[in-house]
Design goal:
Number of helices: 11
Shape: globular
Distance between the termini: 27 Å
Largest sheet: none
Radius of gyration: 16 Å
Length: 233
């Protein structure tokens, strides 16, 4: 199962740090910079209905069909899973998709499909073999890269997660972009989490994710803006 409480488990009972601003979304490059257009990302896509009109302008029909197939498969495999905010888990997947497609300008349909499917092996009964059978070896490889290994204990889980995050330094560029889009969606709602989790997740993001963003024309300024505006409680 997904060891990231920002996106796994039952709905949270209420925000732990609800201030006047949304520190996870404020002042991102998408607000007024060229990388994300005139709007901030994530913020507009939460379902296929909200994503499809813009995706149709970015992809050819075959690419759009592949991404729609991935959206359907993600919905099928994640089922009724919720985020701690009480939203369907698929909202997180479409937020990540918006970040990578609109913000980072990634329009490779296999990368976008893998973004929607990035948690299915880790967090649902789906297997990598099933992903490959439906979407081919490239999508399956990307999903495999961003899947944390199972752990037998809490200690093993923490060690495994650190090893997994360090391993991403050697990942192909599309995989790094998928992970950065995934984490961008997560930190956008981080202020709603308990204070101790906020501190740990913030430190983890600064330690392992910000270095991955270095040099990227969209993700480096996005994460720089986030790190300046967000303060864990």
């Amino acid at each position: 199962m997904n060891s990231d409480p920002v996106n796994s488990g039952p709905a949270n009972q209420g925000p732990a740090n609800q201030g006047p601003a949304d520190p996870g979304r404020a002042a991102t490059p998408g607000d007024d910079g060229p990388q994300g257009g005139a709007r901030r990302v994530p913020g507009s896509w939460a379902s296929w209905r909200t994503a499809e009109p813009e995706l149709a302008t970015l992809l050819d029909p075959a690419g759009l069909e592949l991404v729609k197939k991935a959206a359907d498969a993600a919905a099928r495999w994640h089922g009724e899973q919720l985020r701690p905010t009480g939203e369907p888990y698929t909202v997180h997947l479409f937020e990540a998709l918006e970040v990578i497609a609109v913000g980072a300008g990634e329009h490779d349909p296999e990368v976008l499909a893998a973004t929607l499917l990035h948690d299915v092996v880790e967090d649902t009964p789906a297997t990598l073999t099933e992903v490959e059978a439906e979407f081919g070896p490239v999508v399956a490889e990307y999903v495999d890269w961003v899947t944390k290994p199972p752990a037998a204990s809490k200690r093993d889980k923490r060690a495994g997660k650190v090893a997994y995050l360090r391993r991403l330094r050697d990942a192909p560029a599309p995989v790094v972009a998928i992970k950065l889009a995934d984490r961008a969606s997560n930190v956008a709602t981080l202020h709603r989490m308990p204070a101790d989790f906020q501190r740990r997740y913030h430190a983890e993001t600064v330690t392992y994710l910000l270095p991955l963003a270095e040099g990227h024309p969209f993700f480096e300024p996005w994460y720089r803006a986030w790190s300046v505006t967000y303060r864990p409680v």
